[in-house]
Amino acid sequence: MAWYNFVACFFLGVFLINSLPHLVHGVSGDRFPTPFAKPPGKGLSSPILNVVWALINIVVCFLLYKAAKISMSNIWTVILFAAGFIIMSFRLSSVLTNKLNS
Length: 102
Description:
The mean pLDDT is 92. Helix 1 (3-28) packs antiparallel against helix 2 (47-68) and helix 1 (3-28) runs parallel beside helix 3 (75-101). This protein has 102 residues and is mostly helical. The radius of gyration is 15 Å and the shape is elongated. Helices cover 74% and strands 0% of the residues. The longest helix is centred in the last third of the chain and has 27 residues, at 75-101.
């Protein structure tokens, strides 16, 4: 496997976890920060924009999945996917806690 397949595995986890809060807030009708808010990432975007952003993230996930060639037979692809998912989970948790509480 080429090095970029492993990078794709990591970012597949990152984009997958990033799509979830946007999708949940969007379909729940809640406003939530997106990169398109004013100021970017700090202001609140509409529920529709959150659903769009979640779908964009899911499309990126699909493309990364194709590039990643993730497989249970190659444990490193699974470890890198899980690392991206876990690291981004904690990052989102800390960033969003600070933004939404201030």
